[in-house]
Design goal:
The complex is a heterodimer. Chain A is α/β, with parallel strands linked by helices. Chain A is built from 15 helices and 13 strands. The chains are: A alpha/beta, B alpha+beta. At the A-B interface, helix 8, strand 9 and helix 9 of A face helix 1 of B.
Chain lengths: 445, 442
């Protein structure tokens, strides 16, 4: 779906007009293309903890131009803030101020990524304050950045080094164009598990991935993205969407499975198809979902129950089947929504289902980990799809432009990229989490 | 196919010494009543959609199939290479050979049967057979008079010759020729032909309406139990056959006035309710050798065991127009050492309810079986609970060339679900022809 405003303020004479009028000017985001450089310029690693050294090694290993200090007039691709060693609020100061001084050198599409430890209740209060302080600093920094640059963080659980596979993979994801619409977010790595890909452009090579709701919108983008990254796709959607589904499957050289996921035997049907036809099942993306918006005062049982049944209960039932089958190393990614985090007027049913997904993912994680797999969720914000194209223009403009730090709606591809990352073996140390892909929005969509 | 095996052989291998041809699966677009949802869809569009849905279901993208054989009964002259042109529009490899088959309503069966033979002979490893028809986007030809003028005009060299050609033009030549379902040699419509047969066999209105009702109920029930989820891909916003009337009743069917055989007066029993409507649609069936199916991790639903064509002399009134299957079935049974009762499912195409019931009545009639089929005894009756159990053409509709593909895919899935047994297919066709076939569960 086109965001015409984004085009207007970035091209031709309307670009200059918008500039002189002082109109908000969202930037065209740096999105991933296979083979492109990981970051647009040199990377500066700031901070003094153990992570600083480990991260420098990692970045050098990727052949990047790595500096330990900012300065000079040279433009920079990314700033890495190694804050894993902070013990008290005063420890934030040096890195914060050095970051501030370097911000103007950051190229469009640049990145700030912090590495720190999560605050836990057993911390001394000062340490907890400092650690938690990092999140406030990074999130605010995200709001101050321009030119499509973003600020995100990686939280390393106690005992996990910055060189853990999933810490490395999270850093790679956040630096790359794959995280274009992820802003102001934190990914927690709480396990040393995970296996880095042989080829970062083919992180899903050899995998078989099932994508539900794959006929259109975000689901179709997920199918195409996972296929681009090397996976064989089983495209699932309701029989009524079969023609669009066939188109997607033929584009990605996968197979279709026309299936209503609310069926009792949906999990078995999916496993039978994937195992029977492709010999394995590595990834399930629970993307199928519906909206039946109504103010709660006007809500009827059909609207409420169908949303809960499709968006949440079907996933619970399928996950039970997958767990019962003990598929080794299965990685599940569910679609939540920022509506399920922030709430949204007219979406009590939808938000209940999407917040439910966040709870489901957290509670299913241990069982998945016990089978060498994992489960996470992605919560999209305002994404430009056929669905959001039907929102009245004024509401849509507010939703896409004024609220997110990036001043624009996301593309289905942006959601798909985050899902592809969480579905990869490299994300094995990330489990039970919900990652927002919202351009740092305040509200749900 | 030569009759090599004697009837005494208990084998159902049909012709011995050949490898099996396996039905892997099928796909069709929902069938739509004529001049309805698909009124602007061409044969090529519909066949391409049916093929692409099949390709997507079985992951055939980029594959070179052994052959794609299909056809249409009503075909524009520009569609001389309809199937090849359709294949070029799909995700299949453009190096897949394709050819058109045309045998009236038996087009699909003939296409599928002869592909199965090629697989059994080892000539090809895989094939897609099917058919398509539209009576909405039907070819309309200019009149013979105008055609003669236009052809002469194109041969004319001088102004005088051109004027001479044009002078032969008459205003009545502007009336176009639309295709009909009339038989060229009798001028009678297919329905009027069947009405004679129906009356001759004493088939009652009640029996025909009951068969029509069962067809609608069985088809509706099959949809309800998701039977068609892996047999159909929607097209142009249609996801179910538009002719299906799940809420039909005998009372409603009973109110309809006779549509065929009206010259029979009181004995006219054939209505729009117990006759198939003109329909648009397309179907495709994936066939392969066992090796092909195994190599590609594809399911094997049923073996396409054998098939047989028949034809009757309806022109001289020796037999009813649509009775050829009644003659072809006993030959097929004999070649395969089977009796009519050796089947778990019977798929008898419901061109008209009267066609199915006349055929069954003929097989039950000792005189017919002795005098016409040369058998000592009647073939006997079938268990009606095994007839068209997931609905047939009266409910689904009948896009002529697409019906064979619908039946073969449906029957193969039924047999696979049951896990054992055989199915008998019978499809009648214009021109007094018909094709019958045997499938065996895997």
């Amino acid at each position: 779906m086109a965001d015409n405003y984004l085009k207007l303020v970035n091209t031709g004479f309307t670009k200059d007009l918008a500039k002189s009028l002082g109109l908000p000017r969202p930037s065209i985001l740096r999105r991933y293309r296979p083979g492109q450089p990981l970051v647009p310029g040199p990377v500066v690693v700031l901070g003094a903890g153990a992570a600083a050294h480990e991260l420098t090694e990692t970045l050098l290993g990727w052949g990047l131009d790595v500096r330990r200090h900012a300065g000079g007039s040279e433009k920079l691709g990314a700033l890495i803030l190694a804050l894993d060693a902070v013990e008290a609020p005063a420890d934030l100061s040096a890195v914060a101020l050095e970051t501030g001084a370097a911000l103007r050198s950051l190229l469009p599409g640049g990145r700030v990524v912090s590495i720190s430890r999560p605050a836990v209740p057993t911390d001394a209060p000062a340490r907890s304050a400092a650690r938690h302080g990092v999140t406030g600093m990074v999130r605010s920094l995200g709001r101050e950045m321009r030119g499509g640059a973003t600020a995100n963080g990686i939280l390393l659980a106690e005992g996990i080094g910055a060189d853990a596979p999933s810490a490395t993979a999270a850093l790679h994801f956040l630096l790359s164009g794959r995280s274009a619409y992820v802003d102001g977010q934190f990914l927690t790595v709480d396990s040393p598990r995970g296996e880095l890909p042989v080829d970062w452009d083919q992180p899903l090579a050899g995998k078989v991935a099932v994508v539900t709701g794959a006929a259109r919108g975000i689901g179709a983008a997920i199918a195409r993205t996972l296929h681009r990254d090397g996976a064989t796709i089983v495209a699932v959607d309701v029989p009524q969407a079969g023609d669009a589904l066939a188109q997607v499957a033929n584009d990605v050289r996968g197979t279709t499975l026309q299936l209503d996921v609310t069926r009792e035997d949906a999990g078995t049907m999916i496993m039978d198809h994937a195992l029977g036809r492709h010999g394995r099942l590595d990834i399930v993306i629970h993307n199928a979902g519906i909206t039946r918006d109504k103010l709660l005062a006007n809500m009827d049982a059909a609207r409420w129950d169908s949303v809960i049944a499709v968006n949440l209960e079907s996933q619970l039932r399928m996950n039970e089947a997958f767990l019962a089958a003990d598929l080794p190393g299965l990685r599940i990614v569910s679609l939540a929504s920022t509506s399920g985090i922030a709430g949204n007027r007219g979406q009590t049913n939808y938000a209940a289902s999407k917040a439910g997904v966040i709870g489901m993912v957290a509670a299913t994680a241990p069982a998945m980990a016990a089978r060498e797999g994992g489960i996470n969720a992605v919560a999209p914000g305002f994404i430009e799809t056929e669905m959001t194209a039907r929102i009245p223009v004024a509401t849509r403009t507010v939703g896409r432009m004024l609220m997110p730090s990036l001043m624009q709606g996301g593309q289905p591809l942006d959601v798909a990229e985050a899902i592809g990352f969480l579905a990869s073996d490299a994300a094995g140390g990330i489990n039970g989490q919900t990652l927002r892909v919202c351009g740092q929005s305040l509200v749900g969509a | 196919m030569a009759a090599q095996a004697s009837p005494a052989q208990a084998s159902t291998s049909g012709t011995t010494g050949l490898r099996p041809a396996v039905v892997i699966g099928g796909n069709r677009i929902p069938f739509a009543r004529s001049n309805g949802k698909y009124s602007t869809a061409s044969n090529q569009e519909m066949l391409t959609a049916a093929l692409d849905g099949l390709v997507a279901r079985f992951g055939l993208q980029g594959q070179r199939m052994g052959a794609v054989a299909a056809g249409a009964v009503l075909k524009h002259s520009k569609d001389f290479n309809l199937v090849r042109e359709s294949v070029l529009g799909t995700a299949l490899s453009p190096t897949t050979p394709a050819y058109d088959v045309q045998m009236a309503c038996a087009t699909g069966m003939e296409a599928i049967g002869s592909l199965a033979n090629k697989i059994r002979l080892g000539q090809i490893e895989s094939g897609i057979g099917g058919g398509v028809d539209t009576t909405s986007d039907a070819p309309i030809a200019v009149s013979e008079g105008l055609r003669a003028v236009l052809l002469e005009l194109s041969r004319a060299r001088t102004l005088q010759q051109r004027l001479g050609a044009l002078s032969k033009f008459r205003p009545k030549d502007l009336t176009p020729n639309a295709p009909g379902t009339g038989e060229p040699r009798t001028g009678m419509s297919m329905g009027d032909h069947q009405a004679v047969t129906t009356a001759a066999w004493g088939i009652t209105r009640q029996a025909q309406d009951e068969l029509a009702l069962a067809s609608h109920r069985n088809l509706a029930a099959a949809y309800d139990r998701h039977f068609f989820d892996d047999l159909i891909t929607p097209f142009r916003g249609v996801s179910k056959d538009t002719n299906l009337r799940a809420d039909s009743t005998l009372e409603k069917l009973g109110t309809l006035k006779p549509a065929f055989g009206r010259n029979l007066g009181e004995k006219a029993t054939m209505t729009a309710g117990n006759s198939t409507p003109l329909t648009d649609g397309a179907s495709a069936v994936l066939l392969g050798s066992e090796d092909y199916a195994r190599e590609h991790d594809l399911p094997m639903l049923a073996n396409f065991v054998d098939f047989e064509a028949g034809a009757v002399d309806f022109v001289n009134g020796e037999e009813g127009l649509l009775m050829a299957p009644a003659y072809a079935v006993p030959r097929l049974l004999a070649r395969n050492g089977l009796t009519l009762q050796d089947f778990d499912f019977y798929e008898i195409h419901e061109a008209f309810a009267g066609t199915v019931l006349s055929t069954l009545a003929a097989w039950e009639d000792p005189d017919f079986c002795r005098d016409k089929l040369g058998l000592e005894n009647a073939l006997g009756s079938i268990d009606r609970g095994r007839l068209n159990v997931n609905g047939s053409s009266l409910a689904a509709g009948h896009p002529f060339a697409a019906t064979g593909g619908r039946i073969v895919a449906t029957l193969a899935k039924m047999l696979h679900e049951k896990g054992s047994g055989r199915g008998l297919v019978s499809v009648c066709a214009a021109g007094g022809q018909g094709v019958v076939a045997i499938l065996e569960a895997r």
